[in-house]
Design a protein that fits this description.
The protein has ten helices and three strands. It is mostly helical. Helix 1 crosses helix 8, helix 4 (64-88) packs antiparallel against helix 10 (180-204) and helix 7 (113-130) packs antiparallel against helix 8 (134-153). It has two domains: 2-59, Orthogonal Bundle (Arc Repressor Mutant, subunit A), CATH 1.10.10.10; 64-204, Four Helix Bundle (Hemerythrin (Met), subunit A) (Up-down Bundle), CATH 1.20.120. It is 74% helix and 3% strand. A hairpin with a 6-residue loop joins strand 2 (49-50) and strand 3. The model is unreliable at 203-209 (pLDDT under 50). It has a three-stranded antiparallel β-sheet.
Length: 209
């Protein structure tokens, strides 16, 4: 439910300032109000929803500046993870990353946006884990949660799956070669491109930007 509502907000199906009534959402998703409250709580944490005590939740207004700042932080964190992964990943971790990356080409050819989005999340998680630093892992995953709806939106842009694969390929190649600087630079560039792609989609959807 959290993902569904988040995507509706990012895609402009629910506009900034619009109320999110627990009763209507419970009816829409055919659940009780308890999971709706939890979903709204999580959406508040993600910055997509605002709620004052004893008042209805409303869709938050996410400014271009705020979104840009989050992506800037994400790019720096992912660059660190990729650099450390190139230095610290075990042989098995590197091979597993490469195998998964190569297999994702079938999703690109099939134009499977949802499946590729799921794969993409796993790809980046492996880079976070490959850094072998739990504190950095916590920081980067917390930031990713807030950006997840915007990162998923990019895959609706024609041709984005193939470009994402190519960007991943540069990262994987650097990790396999233990090229820390190359991996970090490629990861930073990748997230910066994702930021631009997500912003374009959001602008086209007339949601936030």
């Amino acid at each position: 439910m959290v993902r569904a509502i988040a995507d509706m907000i990012v895609l402009g199906e629910i506009l900034p300032g619009e109320r999110l009534e627990e009763t209507s959402l419970a009816s829409r998703f055919e659940v009780s109000r308890t999971p709706v409250r939890e979903a709204l709580r999580q959406l508040c944490t993600m910055g997509l929803v605002e709620r004052e005590p004893n008042r209805s939740a409303v869709v938050a207004t996410v400014t271009e500046q705020y979104l840009s700042a989050m992506f800037e932080a994400m790019a720096e964190l992912e660059a660190i993870c990729a650099r450390l992964s190139a230095e610290r990943m075990t042989v098995d971790e590197r091979r597993s990353l490469e195998t998964m990356h190569r297999a994702s080409m079938r999703l690109v050819h099939a134009g499977a946006e949802e499946d590729y989005a799921a794969y993409n999340a796993e790809f980046h998680t492996r880079l976070y884990r490959g850094a072998h630093n739990e504190h950095i892992y916590d920081l980067v995953t917390q930031t990713r949660v807030r950006l997840a709806p915007f990162r998923r939106a990019q895959f609706r842009i024609p041709g984005r799956l193939a470009k994402s694969y190519d960007e991943h390929d540069v990262i994987v190649t650097a990790v396999m070669r233990a090229d820390a600087a190359g991996a970090g630079g490629a990861a930073y560039s990748h997230v910066s491109i994702v930021s631009d792609a997500s912003a374009i989609f959001a602008a086209d959807s007339k949601s936030y930007l």
